[in-house]
Amino acid sequence: EGTPGVMSLIDWSGEVEEGHELLRGIQSELDPPAGELAIVPYLAIQSITDKLLAPGTIHAYLKAGFTAELTSTMIDSLIDRGSQVGSRLSVIEVLALGGAIRDVPSDATAFPHRAARWLINIAGQWHEPGATEGEIDWVRGTFAALEPHLSGGAYSNFMEDDDAEAATAAYGSTLDRLRRIKAIYDPDNVFRLNQNIEPARHE
Q1: Residue 122 bridge partners (DSSP)
Q2: Which of 72, 114, 123 is nearest to 93 (CA)?
Q3: HEC states along the chain?
Q4: Environment class of residue 95 by beta-carbon count within 10 Å: exposed (0-12), middle (13-18) or buried (19+)?
Q5: How far apart are CA 194 and CA 15, in angstroms?
Q6: What pTM was computed for the model?
Q7: Region 120-124: what's the mean pLDDT?
């Protein structure tokens, strides 16, 4: 069903003409076999996969991690594992961080991984139930191949229930404070159907 490839989604938030000039230069330098340069409302960007990934339409399994640098050996691993993808919906996302994310102190909010430069999201997504085992194996194998290049930690939106110590990985140094807050507002842990933060227990 086609040839696997690399898709680059680059957005500019600012003055339109300045952004067009910058992005036209990038597009010309990359010379992709297909591409589009357009003004897209923020809501459209956020909802672009709503139909494709609507609840109940696909199966999915995710693992992700952060890295400070895309080294040549890591890029080799990304290409190698990407070439082994099964479902046409499965992807490895290399998401740029930095910028305004780093302007906020790491302990100011629940999200502590502000020093990371890249977020690597390995997303297995498929329709047929019979493909489940193979797709999960691909995600886990890809994560294992990339893990030596990762800097630790996790992103709570890209985790599964089988991730050991999920809250510690996602919230790191902010977890103790979050547990104390949870003990005040939700001491019975009613809101737990997520990457759960257990409320602190008073001895």
Answers
A1: 63, 92
A2: 123
A3: CCCCCCCCCCCCCCCHHHHHHHHHHHHHHHCCCCCCCCCCCHHHHHCCCCCCCCCCCCEEEEEEEEECCCCHHHHHHHHHHHCCCCCCCCEEEEEECCHHHHHCCCCCCCCCCCCCCEEEEEEEEECCHHHHHHHHHHHHHHHHHHHHHCCCCCCHHHCCCCCCCHHHHHHHHHHHHHHHHHHHHCCCCCCCCCCCCCCCCCC
A4: middle
A5: 38
A6: 0.87
A7: 96
User: Residue 54: is its pLDDT beyond 90?
Assistant: no
What pLDDT does residue 161 have?
Answer: 77
Q: In this model, does residue 21 exceed pLDDT 60?
A: yes
CA-based R_g, the chain, Å? 19
CA proximity to 169, closest of 78, 49, 160: 160
Phi, psi (deg, nearest 5) at residue 122: -100, 110
Summarize the confidence of residues 3-16 as an average pLDDT. Answer: 86
Distance of CA 34 to the CA centre of its chain: 24
Q: What is the dihedral angle through the alpha carbons of 37, 42, 44, 50, rounded to the nearest 10 degrees?
A: 120
The Cα angle at residue 155 between residues 154 and 156, in degrees rounded to 5? 110
Give the model's confidence band at 203: pLDDT under 50 very low, under 70 low, under 90 confident, else very high: low
